[in-house]
């Protein structure tokens, strides 16, 4: 932890490689307020003084006025537009949350060219040179999924800005992100599923969570909200019916199979949702459930497994048991058949390989 030239101001290097700036409130050395900006920001001195005097309580109290024509201004205007899109049902709140999370990455990025070298992008003219964007892409090489999503945001932001006359060109349009995906979440194996269930016995919320994931193949953004209100009767059988949170997904309706019905009926505490916290309350967000599920996985000796890996395992198991591409599409809520093809394609290749190599079985060797 390093001290800067301001009394009570601390620079704290984070594990992520970012820098956090905090201020000790004068007269209360145990109280520290995190600043959302660094010393290079034009409003830093004013914000520092307010934090030093204890006028502000948290970063959310700080209202920064970005200078028009800067990267920070364009990012702020675009995200405000996206918020309005979400409010009118024209965009997903998950997309908004993801792009809001990319805001610090973009604004704290340091320029590497010209007279602006070393300055944060936040205060620079809004049309970032293509070579700077290419350097950002290359720095994200180890996380191809993140790189693609960051550049989806940048391309959409500049397209929005061009349509409204804020900028003349879209510098992100020429940047391609073609890094090979590392395969995403690791699918759970049968041994993984067994190991988890041996540690978390039936009747526990951990067991209920795995069962819900496995027998609905739902995303975690849906899992934390599913409950008895989503049950319906079709031909005397209980089904679950819901609209996935992910934008573009189709309505899902699937029967509640016996293992899931047993888990639901064995719950000791009944709430408005199937999955409840230790206090018997619904999880407030998908992130809250994700963090708890990670804890349960670690407790079962599976620290590298995730909820999305169960969804992938369900897709593979469905294919292995003869489900067609379109049946998996209906269960997973995919809008495009090609998305479900990844599950059936690998199984079909295995079957073709088995059939092919069997033709050598009677060879006189």
Automatic annotation (TrEMBL):
Keywords: DNA integration, DNA recombination, DNA-binding. The keyword DNA-binding applies. Gene3D superfamilies: 1.10.150.130, Intergrase catalytic core (1.10.443.10). It comes from the Bacteria. Residues 183-357 form the Tyr recombinase domain. InterPro entries: DNA_brk_join_enz (IPR011010), Integrase-like_cat_sf (IPR013762), Integrase_catalytic (IPR002104), Integrase_recombinase_N (IPR010998), Tyrosine_recombinase_XerCD (IPR050090). Pfam families: Phage_integrase. PANTHER family: INTEGRASE_RECOMBINASE PROTEIN MJ0367-RELATED (PTHR30349:SF41), PHAGE INTEGRASE-RELATED (PTHR30349). Belongs to the 'phage' integrase family. This is Tyrosine-type recombinase/integrase.
């Amino acid at each position: 932890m390093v001290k800067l030239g301001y009394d009570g101001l601390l620079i704290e290097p984070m594990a992520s490689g970012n820098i956090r700036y905090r201020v000790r409130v004068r007269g209360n050395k145990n109280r520290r307020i995190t600043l959302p900006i660094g010393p290079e920001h034009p409003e830093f001195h004013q914000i520092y003084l307010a934090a030093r005097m204890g006028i502000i309580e948290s970063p959310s109290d700080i209202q920064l006025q970005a200078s028009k024509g800067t990267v920070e201004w364009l990012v702020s205007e675009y995200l405000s537009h996206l918020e309005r899109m979400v409010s009118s049902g024209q965009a997903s709140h998950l997309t908004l949350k993801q792009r809001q999370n990319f805001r610090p990455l973009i604004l704290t990025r340091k320029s590497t060219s010209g007279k602006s070298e070393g300055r944060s992008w936040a205060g620079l003219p809004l049309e970032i040179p293509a070579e700077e964007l290419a350097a950002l892409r290359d720095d994200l090489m180890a996380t191809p999924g993140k790189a693609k999503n960051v550049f989806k945001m940048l391309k959409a932001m500049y397209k929005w800005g061009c349509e409204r006359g804020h900028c003349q060109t879209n510098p992100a349009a020429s940047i391609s992100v073609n890094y090979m995906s590392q395969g995403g979440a690791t699918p759970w194996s049968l041994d993984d599923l067994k190991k988890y269930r041996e540690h978390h016995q039936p009747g526990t919320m951990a067991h209920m969570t795995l069962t819900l994931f496995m027998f609905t193949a739902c995303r975690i953004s849906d899992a934390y909200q599913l409950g008895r209100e989503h049950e319906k009767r079709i031909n005397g059988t209980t089904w679950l019916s819901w609209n996935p949170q992910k934008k573009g997904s189709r309505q899902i309706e699937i029967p509640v199979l016996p293992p899931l019905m047993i888990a639901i009926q064995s719950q000791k505490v009944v709430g408005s949702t199937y999955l409840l916290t230790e206090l018997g309350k619904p999880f407030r967000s998908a992130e809250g459930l994700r963090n708890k599920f990670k804890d349960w996985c670690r407790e079962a000796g599976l620290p590298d497994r995730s909820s999305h890996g169960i969804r992938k395992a369900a897709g593979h198991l469905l294919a292995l048991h003869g489900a067609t591409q379109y049946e998996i599409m209906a269960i997973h809520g995919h809008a495009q058949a090609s998305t479900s093809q990844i599950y059936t394609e690998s199984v079909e290749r295995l079957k073709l390989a088995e059939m092919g190599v069997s033709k050598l079985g009677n060879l006189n060797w």
